[in-house]
Amino acid sequence: MLKNITLSAEESLIHRARARAEEEQTTLNAEFRAWLVQYVERPQSAAAYLAFMNELDYAEPGRSFSRDEMNER
User: Fold this and answer.
1) Domain extent listing, the chain
2) The predicted structure's pLDDT at residue 39
3) DSSP alpha helices (H): ranges in 24-72?
C-alpha cells in the first residue's frame, strides 16, 4: 500500500528535478521511491562492509610499498 507524504524544497530545485525526471522518462515520485529504498538499505550495507573489513583486520602488508609498486599493473 502506498502512502502519501509531504516534502518541502526550493521551487527552483523542484522545477529542475521535474525537468530531469521528464528527460529520463520517469517521475519524481518514482525517483523518490527508489531513493527511499536505497536510504533504508544503506545502513545494512554499511554494517556489512564494516563487518567484512573487521574480518580482514589480521592482514598486514609487512612493509610499505613505493608509489611505483602500488601502480604496477
Assistant:
1) 11-58
2) 86
3) 28-55, 67-71
